[in-house]
């Protein structure tokens, strides 16, 4: 008994699906939802089924099929093609879900969701619309869009800062505080951030020889602010490094022209010399120096010991001088007192009684001979008896 020849093929297409029917590997038509009985008499058939809830018709031959069978497929598929100077914002049900790079071809199924592609010309204008930037720059949407990070340059300029927009290595404009976004396709974009607030820089541990060849270690601190951001951006690659080197050089120059004693006696003079010398140099590069101050002057161990000995000797000499001055003053006072008592018997007698009082306070027991008059007149005498 001969086997039955199969002359029909049944293809079931769900409501959320569409099928492309191929006969002898040539596209024939689109099968809508439902059950289809396909004749096999004209040759073998093949049905490729696609889920239209995925929206994107992501097939390598999509562009070929639409260009060749556009009249048939236009009822089911919508296509978008971008030039080399265009970017596409891909929306599904009015939600931004993807960014289409320049030169992209994308085909989408009709009938599933509301789909649109907003095309942006970036040949001249590369700034991103504020509303779109709010979705791409941060928040949930930025995490969902795969190409957002690669597609845009997102920059936040905080208060008291300024941004320098560089396009293909050229300074285009200055950006005030705020949020900015730019398309990175077809160009190199960079934003350099400059802090306009008062800043501090420290020059630490500088080993320097004074004019009298004493080695010191000095710590210097300075404060500055950027007065001309454009000059700083165009003329300096490392603003902090430049200021550090200038402070270092001027510190060495100022210390090398002074002796150790003059440095220790007047540190403010050193600050003034450094600030005066560096101010004009920094101003030429758009930087204003606010203040310069020496924080520490550290001596080596042996020099510190020698200075301590010098100070100790000076203080000891001063103490001896004061002691001798006081002794001289005391002797002069005693001499004047003696002259007064010599010419005044009553004052002499009062001094004798004062001495008697002092003696009596130190004696526990006194034996009196000759009566109280003997004690008062004979016990203490400051003038010899004639």
Automatic annotation (TrEMBL):
<dbReference type="InterPro" id="IPR001107">
    <property type="entry name" value="Band_7"/>
</dbReference>
<comment type="similarity">
    <text>Belongs to the band 7/mec-2 family.</text>
</comment>
<dbReference type="Pfam" id="PF01145">
    <property type="entry name" value="Band_7"/>
</dbReference>
<dbReference type="InterPro" id="IPR043202">
    <property type="entry name" value="Band-7_stomatin-like"/>
</dbReference>
<dbReference type="GO" id="GO:0005886">
    <property type="term" value="C:plasma membrane"/>
</dbReference>
<feature type="domain" description="Band 7">
    <location>
        <begin position="152"/>
        <end position="311"/>
    </location>
</feature>
<dbReference type="InterPro" id="IPR036013">
    <property type="entry name" value="Band_7/SPFH_dom_sf"/>
</dbReference>
<protein>
    <submittedName>
        <fullName>Slipin family protein</fullName>
    </submittedName>
</protein>
